[in-house]
């Protein structure tokens, strides 16, 4: 039977950057062996599958330093302290893509990286989005375009959407949209 490891102690902030804090946790394993385990601490992030008023998916492209590649992705962003995930999702959609929506559906909450990170990915579907203009941060260079839902499936299938949390959110949204479509008939 799998057992939870026993937390012995914790060292906070052993490493810090503008994007993350690293804590070290000291555990006793079920075998009684003691180990150190680094955990990236954070509030998590939001990912938004957004559809404009014509039912087209709002897709962004930007350089992603972690993988040193240009990624075709969904709107996403880290959660700011003091904001709920939904408030953050609304802020990111307007900031990065220049769209607002009053129709939001929560698709789920998933671990960013269950083995070594404390944050959660909050996935949303925003529908009937209206363009109001981008408001990018100084380090954001984002190209926005709209595509059919089938194009999004193709991006995933051909490995053009690289971020796994974006892929998960897209698949959840596509499943939700497929279910809604079948319920109409």
From TrEMBL:
InterPro entries: NUDIX_hydrolase-like_dom_sf (IPR015797), NUDIX_hydrolase_dom (IPR000086)
UniProtKB keywords: Hydrolase
Family matches, as SUPFAM superfamilies: Nudix
Superkingdom assignment: Bacteria
Domain called Nudix hydrolase: residue spans: 41-169
GO cellular component: cytosol
GO terms, molecular function: hydrolase activity
UniProt cross-references to CDD domains, sorted A to Z: NUDIX_ADPRase_Nudt5_UGPPase_Nudt14 (cd03424)
Cofactor(s) essential for the protein: Mg(2+)
Pfam families found in the cross-reference section: NUDIX
Protein name from the UniProt record: Nudix hydrolase domain-containing protein
Naturally occurring in which organism (per UniProt): Candidatus Magasanikbacteria bacterium CG11_big_fil_rev_8_21_14_0_20_39_34
């Amino acid at each position: 039977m799998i057992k939870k490891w026993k937390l012995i102690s914790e060292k906070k902030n052993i490493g810090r950057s503008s994007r993350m804090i690293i804590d070290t946790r000291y555990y006793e394993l079920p075998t009684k062996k003691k180990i150190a385990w680094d955990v990236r601490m954070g509030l998590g992030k939001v990912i938004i599958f957004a559809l404009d008023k014509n039912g087209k998916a709002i897709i962004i492209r930007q350089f992603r330093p972690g993988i040193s590649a240009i990624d075709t992705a969904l709107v996403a962003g880290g959660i700011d302290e003091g904001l709920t995930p939904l408030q953050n999702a609304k802020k990111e959609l307007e900031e990065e893509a220049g769209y607002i929506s009053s129709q939001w559906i929560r698709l789920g909450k998933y671990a960013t990286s269950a083995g070594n990170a404390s944050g959660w990915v909050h996935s949303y579907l925003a529908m009937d989005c209206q363009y109001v203009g981008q408001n990018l941060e100084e380090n954001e260079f984002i190209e926005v375009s709209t595509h059919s839902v089938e194009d999004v499936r193709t991006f995933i299938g051909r490995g053009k959407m690289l971020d796994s949390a974006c892929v998960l959110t897209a698949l959840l949204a596509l499943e939700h949209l497929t279910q809604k479509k079948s319920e109409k008939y």
